[in-house]
């Protein structure tokens, strides 16, 4: 029974907290007879620790974070699961104004193409090294984050060694615009709206986006402890149904303005409503008075955006191995895979008219165009899902994929 169940959920002020906020604000949680209490946090470390010590029953969580905890890589490692994703995409890479101008002077077109931006960045780095200048400092939001892995993937594919050519540090998302303005960092990879805030304040320029590094790729999940999930299965199922219906509402183009108004409120993102609307519609101001329309920038519901694909979990695991955060073994791969729980997702959503994927894993990067796929009900379309360098990830061939990464620097 779920009547009167109270769930405290931690979140960070980011665009991809939208489904959680909409579930509370638009009554979807109430419809499932649960009371959701959202608590805004300032850093992913706080989210991690407050889940571990029991302050939160659930949390808006970086997609690799449950995997890291289950592999014992976190300071307070507890068994976690991800029974639902909270959307696809939503990140961007933003450079300081001086770095942007330097890259533009070396041929960057400014159209968000990752290969083009990467070539210019590589040239800048080589010139700085020859001149004896300090390495560029690039901020990500957490060591176990999609931001860290997509940034490193992009840099490496463009011929930049993330370990030797730049310094990568951790900064909480809301502090990124100020870190750029102060000169403490030269670039950041962060979720929206903080790239757009940096542009609006004059401290940054967006140079590429996650949606073009790896299109329709995973970003955040709902994270819960295994203990709570096992003890409160009915409540968890009700929460997933509320979030799924919230995702449907968030995805409606007619609802974008209302959603932007809700998210912009002081208790949620506390940023300008117009900035939020641009992020929701993919109309990004990459620099003042210059808008680039990005397809699939942040996908809330379509393309199985809330399904916890175990192939996503295994790709994140492959990057943990690549960058020396853990060793590779068959046991570790199973732990990573089973951190994502599509079985719970299917169980919870069975009463709804939702098309549920028939598989738990898929080949990542293989779809160049939208593709209808098998599901419990008609209407599920996936892709495109390409990596910008044309590679694919087959979870059934993970050993070869990890070996092919050639340590830190190879692709």
TrEMBL record:
Show the Gene3D superfamilies listed in the entry.
Periplasmic binding protein-like II
Q: What SUPFAM superfamilies does its record include?
A: Periplasmic binding protein-like II
Q: Which InterPro entries match?
A: NrtA/CpmA_ABC-bd_dom
Identify the main location.
Answer: membrane
Q: Which UniProt keywords apply?
A: Cell inner membrane, Cell membrane, Membrane, Transport
* Entry GO terms, CC: endomembrane system
The organism's place on the tree of life at top rank = Bacteria
Where in the cell? Answer: Endomembrane system
The portions of this protein that span the membrane are: none
Name this protein carries in UniProt = Nitrate transporter
Specify the species. Phyllobacterium phragmitis
Source species taxonomy: Bacteria, Pseudomonadati, Pseudomonadota, Alphaproteobacteria, Hyphomicrobiales
């Amino acid at each position: 029974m779920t009547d009167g169940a109270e769930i405290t959920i931690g979140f960070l002020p980011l665009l991809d907290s939208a489904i959680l906020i909409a579930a509370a604000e638009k009554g979807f949680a109430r419809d499932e007879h649960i009371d959701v209490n959202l608590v805004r946090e300032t850093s992913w470390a706080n989210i991690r620790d407050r889940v571990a010590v029991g302050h939160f029953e659930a949390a808006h969580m970086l997609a690799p974070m449950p995997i890291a905890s289950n592999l014992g890589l976190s300071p307070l490692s507890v068994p976690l699961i991800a029974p639902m994703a909270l959307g696809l995409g939503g990140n961007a890479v933003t450079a300081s104004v001086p770095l942007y101008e330097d890259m533009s002077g070396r041929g960057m077109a400014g159209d968000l193409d990752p290969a083009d931006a990467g070539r210019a960045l590589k040239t800048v780095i080589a010139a700085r090294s020859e001149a004896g200048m300090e390495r560029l400092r690039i901020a990500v939001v957490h060591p176990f984050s999609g931001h860290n892995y997509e940034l490193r993937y992009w840099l490496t594919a463009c011929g930049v060694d993330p370990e030797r050519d730049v310094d990568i540090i951790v900064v909480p998302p809301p502090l990124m615009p100020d870190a750029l303005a102060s000169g403490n960092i030269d670039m950041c990879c962060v979720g929206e709206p903080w790239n757009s805030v940096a542009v609006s304040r004059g401290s940054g320029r967006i140079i590429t986006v996650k949606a073009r590094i790896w299109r329709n790729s995973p970003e955040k999940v709902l994270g819960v402890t295994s203990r709570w999930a096992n003890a409160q299965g009915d409540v968890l199922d009700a929460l997933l149904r509320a979030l799924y219906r919230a995702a449907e509402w968030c995805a409606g183009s007619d609802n974008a303005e209302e959603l932007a108004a809700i998210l912009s409120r002081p208790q949620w993102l506390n940023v300008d409503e117009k900035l939020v609307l641009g992020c929701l519609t993919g109309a990004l101001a990459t620099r003042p008075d210059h808008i680039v329309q990005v397809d699939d920038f942040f996908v809330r519901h379509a393309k199985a955006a809330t399904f916890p694909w175990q192939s996503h979990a295994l790709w994140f695991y492959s990057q943990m191995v690549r960058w020396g955060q853990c060793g590779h073994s068959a046991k570790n791969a199973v732990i990573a895979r089973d951190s994502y729980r599509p079985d719970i997702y299917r169980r919870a959503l069975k009463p709804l008219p939702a098309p549920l994927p028939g598989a738990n894993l898929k080949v990542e990067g293989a779809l160049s165009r939208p593709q209808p796929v098998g599901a419990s009900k008609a209407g599920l379309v996936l892709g495109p899902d390409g990596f910008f360098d044309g590679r694919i990830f087959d979870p059934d061939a993970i050993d070869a994929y990890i070996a092919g990464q050639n340590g830190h620097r190879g692709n």
